[in-house]
Each structure stands twice: as C-alpha cells, then as structure tokens.
Write a structure and sequence with these properties.
The protein is α+β, with helices and mostly antiparallel strands and 191 residues long. It is built from 4 helices and 9 strands; from the N terminus they run βαββαββαβαβββ. A hairpin with a 2-residue loop joins strand 4 and strand 5. Adenosine-5'-triphosphate binds next to strand 1, strand 3, strand 6, strand 8 and strand 9.
C-alpha cells in the first residue's frame, strides 16, 4: 500500500510571496553558506504535518477538513520578524514569524485534536505560526553558524512584510524529489 505524505496549510498571497522573494534575494546574497533556501512558491503556513498516511486515512482527513471543522471566520495575518528554531544562536530552521489572532490558534488546535483522534500525531511542541524560509545543513561549522546568526540579526527589512486575509485552508500532498519538495493541493476548505 502506498503512503501519501501530506500536510494542512495556508497558502500565501502573491503579494506576500513577492515580498518574501525580495527578502530571500537579500539573504541569499550574503556570505552565509550551508543553507537550503525554500523557493518562494513553496512557502506556506503549516497548520499540521500529517506525515505519510494511508489512502484511507487521507480520505478521512479530507472529509474531516471539509465537513467537520467548525465554521471559523476569515481572519488577517501579518508577516513579522526573522527568527530560527531552536534559537537564533543555534539556527537549524530559518523562518519568518506570523502574527495572527486567536482564531488561527483555535483552528490549528481543532485540526490537531481531530487528527489525533484518528491516530495522526506529529509535533508535540506548541504551535508557533511561522513560514520556513530555509534549513541549515546539519554539518554546518561553528564559524558558519556565527555568520548565519549575524545575518538573522543584521538583515534590514520592512517591519511589515505584508498582511493577508485568510479565507481558506488546504490539504496538500508533498512529494520529495531530488530537486526539492513538490506540493499539490488535494482539497480546500473555505472559512
Ligand atoms: P524538504 O523536506 O524537502 O525540506 P519540506 O520540509 O518543505 O521539504 P515536507 O518535509 O513534506 O516538505 O514538509 C511539509 C511541511 O510540513 C513543511 O512546512 C514542513 O516544515 C512541515 N513538517 C515536515 N516535517 C515535520 C515534522 N516532523 N513536524 C512538524 N512539521 C513538519
Ligand atoms: Mg521536510
């Protein structure tokens, strides 16, 4: 039986993608090496990574998303500051933070609880809305790490990289290929 790698996420507006693309051009032109930057068309706000699931489970998730997630009002998000997981001195995942109202947190919690109830567990950490921009190679040296930390602290960018009105959430399939992940939308739930 073939498993399907998938996740639930919010797709970004072309305005936000454009401002992230400009920021990425700036970040890529720095001396920082050993980072795998995400192509701007692939940047999204993950609500739940489902991992590799069976076609049956995928179907259940699709129905759950379309029919069982309680009606949530559309809401606004804004793109804020650069940061890193686990922290800026030990950057592994480079991201830009997302400011959002409680509605987003409630929506994420609802999705997490509903999917856990059918046996899909993923992140145990609390939800911290972010857009992953790049991943640091794990063989990065101490000196290279310092350059990345400085880059995150010193890059100049607008306080507001854009805001958008969120009216839908999507279920995506992710195929990992040699040239990176390829995402395709399997279902869309309008808010
Ligand atoms: P690649 O793995 O090639 O770097 P990617 O991480 O963008 O690409 P996926 O690994 O399929 O693609 O991940 C899809 C989404 O789910 C991304 O937003 C990713 O950050 C998130 N994700 C992946 N693995 C996990 C995990 N174990 N826990 C939480 N989120 C995850
Ligand atoms: Mg991944």
């Amino acid at each position: 039986m073939s498993l399907i790698r998938c996740f639930i996420a919010i797709c970004l507006s072309s305005e936000i993608r454009d401002s992230l693309e400009n920021l990425l051009i700036q970040l890529k032109s720095s001396k920082a090496g050993n980072i795998r930057w995400i192509p701007s068309e692939n940047i999204h706000l993950t609500l739940k990574f489902l991992g590799e699931i069976s076609p049956e489970n995928l179907n259940t998730v699709k129905n759950l998303l379309l029919d069982e997630i309680n009606h949530t009002q559309p809401f606004e998000i804004s793109i804020r500051k650069l940061g890193a997981f686990p922290n800026i001195s030990r950057p592994r995942v480079i991201w830009i933070g997302v400011q959002a109202p409680d509605t987003l947190f409630q929506l994420q919690k609802q999705i997490d609880e509903r999917t856990k109830a059918i046996g899909i567990f993923s992140d145990t950490r609390s939800f911290s809305p972010h857009l992953t921009l790049g991943r640091v190679n794990r063989y990065c040296t101490v000196d290279q790490t310092k350059v990345i930390t400085a880059l995150l602290k010193q890059t100049n960018y607008p306080d507001d990289l854009g805001s958008m009105h969120i009216e839908a959430i999507r279920l995506y399939k992710s195929e990992l290929t040699r040239s990176g992940a390829v995402y395709s939308c399997l279902a869309e739930k309008k808010l």
